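DUF4239 domain-containing protein
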Amino acid sequence: MRIIQAAVFSGALFFGVFLCLWIGWRIGQARVRRDGEDSITGFGALEGAIYALMGLLIAFTFTGAAQRFDHRRELIVDEVNAIGTAWLRLDLLESNARGHVKELFKQYLDARIEAYAHIDDNSILAAAVNRSAELQRDIWDRLVAAIDLDPRPRTATVVLPPVNEMFDLANTRVLATQQHPPIAIYLMLGFLVLVSALLAGFGMAKAKRWSAIHVVGFAAIVSMAVYLILDLEFPRLGLLRVNDFDRAFLELRASMD
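Tokens:
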């Protein structure tokens, strides 16, 4: 749904830029016919400030989206490593408790894989996240009970910290998927793009005919840049994916059998 909204927003922006260029061009031509060509000059500083602000906002949103994209990929690697470390530490438990805890670990990893395989389906995602939370409680309760019966005093300090880190990273990843700029920033970006297109069209008023390659090229490049920003914000729903990193979860799960 979000990626459809991104495509609709970018498509609407393309036609909006095209329309604003035409409106600005028509207004400028009317001004030229009435007052001469000198009437549309002398606004370079004002136009430059607006263009610079548009470029700055595009750079700001793109940089932020790229950083969050990289951060989400890093969290995937961190969580896989944390689960793998916690899994290995389970071998330190007494044999009578180890088997059941390892089975819970397998179920937990299955739930984590299920959650991000269906991130575009809110109902399946919510069910998988809730299942993960339940398994976290079960794993922790089982571990605490097993460690209480373990005569070795250092078992708790070796086994529990990586499990706790594993749970923390799971929660961090959920929160990371919800971290996005306020919608007002995207609305402001769209507004600046349209105003810039209007001014660009006004500045082309000296030309008696449009240059289709310039008009379509400008509209396409700006709308594609905005779409790429939105795609980076929701990397699992559009053209940009993090599936290669998700394979690490599948490989880890296969190693547990």
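The mean pLDDT is 86.
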